[in-house]
Structures are given as structure tokens and as C-alpha cells.
Amino acid sequence: MLVHRLPREPSTPRITLWRKLRRLGVAQIVDGVVALPADPDNREQLEWLAEEVVQAGGEATIWLSEPATAAEHRALAHAMTERVEAEYRQIAAEAQAAQSKRPVERRRTLARLRRELRRVGARQYFPTPEANGARDAVEALARAAAEAAA
Fold first, then answer.
1. Calpha distance 3→12 (Å, rounded)
2. pTM of the model
């Protein structure tokens, strides 16, 4: 967990921190407290962010913790997975919509959606069926693009 507090002004460091935390896929516990699974990469990312908070005139500490109950663990996993699932559904919908586009547009969309899959996958800490659905839809688009090129 990262526990942080930044001054209200200037707002730029707070906004920058919020965006970086969102890209990491954190679960917001309460205002100023976020959580990620305790793997070495996440810990390093949180250490860097804590340093940025301190450099911006704030306070930050990193805590190793775990939910006390199974229900709390499920709630935390759900909070971290909810946004990722929505992004996977969006990728699948875009891949399906691209099937009817011109070949050049299909290839561009395919390249973008593959990048999106990698970006979202980097923040997927818990299994979700939406990931497979999105991958299947992108691969179906890849097959359609290859058939059109042949």
C-alpha cells in the first residue's frame, strides 16, 4: 500500500500522481491510500512514486499488508479488476466493429488494439474472462486482416 498526502497547491503533482497510479491499476482504499499486489515490480513503482510525492512537498509511506478476511480480499481484487474488465470489453467491441472496415483501417485498428491489450494486460493482477474474450476478438480481426491481404 502507498499512503500519501500532497499539498493542494500546486495541483499538478497531485494530478500527475493520480494518473500514474491509475496506469498501474491500483485499488483506492480511501483518499490517500492505494493498494497493489506485493510483487517486486509494483513495490519498485510505489517506491518511485513515494519519492516523487516527497519531492513535491508531500508525505508518503509504503506498507506491506494483506486483507484480514476473504471478503476483503475479494473486494480488493474486484476493485482492481473492474476497470480492467471494462477496458477489455471495449477492446473486444472495437475489434468486432473493425471487421467491417476497409483493409487498411483494419490493420491500423489491429495494431492499436494489440498495443492496448499489452497495456491493459500489464495492469491485470487477477484472472478475468474478459481478457480471453478481448484476445479472441483481436485475433479474429487479425485473421480477417490477413485474409483480406491474401
1. 18
2. 0.80
Per-residue pLDDT of the chain (150 residues; tens, 9 = 90+): 999 999 999 999 999 999 999 999 999 999 999 999 999 999 999 999 999 999 999 999 999 999 999 999 999 999 889 989 999 999 999 999 999 999 889 999 999 999 999 999 999 999 999 999 999 999 999 998 888 777
Please tell me the distance from the alpha carbon of residue 9 to that of residue 122, in angstroms, as a whole number.
Answer: 32
